[in-house]
Design goal:
Elements: H1 2-19, E1 22-29, E2 32-39, E3 42-50, H2 55-70, H3 76-98, H4 100-107, E4 110-120, H5 125-149, E5 151-152, E6 156-161, E7 169-178, H6 180-219
Parallel strand pairs: 4-5, 4-6
Antiparallel strand pairs: 1-2, 1-7, 2-3, 4-7
């Protein structure tokens, strides 16, 4: 009886850990990004600073851009590494697309309390009208795409022009939640498929090497 209680408590403990959702809060307002993650009783603040660029970082980025412009030839080894990494990413993406758990993962990633308020301002009426139409189209298409990929719950969208406002003002926030179980299940399935693919390729290489040995011997 005691063993059953202990084993049941352990199962319940891991069930709570795996199925309790991880919640992400993101907000952008007054040129400031706020982001935090909450899991059970823990809360971690990721960002909470104004988007003001450090002049030193700006100068460094400028020098890097100038150095890239001056550099006309690329090393052949770097090019090979890039092509290899692209091929690896393509292979991983093909594996990810075939995983059934990824589709389950997408349906359990929930976006809720989405609030988008954008007031388009500017100096000229024509620019304000064009900016308003562009921003509205981008937001609507973005939310539509998000809804096809994940679960999106009733976003509140308010976009409008203001010909008296000197610049565009935005207030965007949303919350997102996902249980760790679905992430772990999808990750485990992808890992198994990658290992299987690697072993399959190695077997093919070994078979190819064995087939080439008799032909080399007969030519001698």
């Amino acid at each position: 009886m005691t063993a059953l209680i202990i084993s049941g408590s352990i199962v319940l403990f891991f069930a709570v850990l795996l199925f309790s959702p991880v919640r992400l809060y993101f907000a952008y307002r007054d040129n400031k990004i706020i982001a935090s993650v909450r899991y059970l009783f823990l809360k971690i603040n990721i960002l909470g600073e104004k988007l003001e660029e450090d002049p030193e970082k700006k100068a460094k980025r400028k020098t890097r851009k100038e150095a890239k412009k001056e550099k006309t030839k690329e090393d052949s080894e770097d090019a090979k590494k890039k092509t290899n990494s692209i091929e690896t990413l393509k292979t991983v993406w093909e594996i990810v697309k075939t995983c059934k758990r990824i589709h389950t993962l997408r349906r359990h990633l929930i976006f809720y309390k989405i609030s988008v308020t954008i007031i388009v301002g500017g100096d000229e009426a024509m620019k304000i009208a064009t900016g308003y139409a562009t921003i509205r189209a981008l937001v609507e298409n973005g939310l539509s795409l998000l809804d096809t990929l994940f679960v999106v719950k009733k976003p509140k969208v308010k976009i409008g022009p203001d010909f008296m406002l000197g610049k565009t003002a935005a207030d965007i926030s949303f919350r997102m939640k996902m249980a760790p179980f679905y992430v772990l299940a999808a990750g485990l399935q992808i890992l198994i498929k990658i290992v299987k693919r690697i072993l399959k390729n190695k077997m093919k290489q070994k078979k190819g090497g064995k087939q080439n040995e008799p032909t080399a011997a007969s030519s001698q």
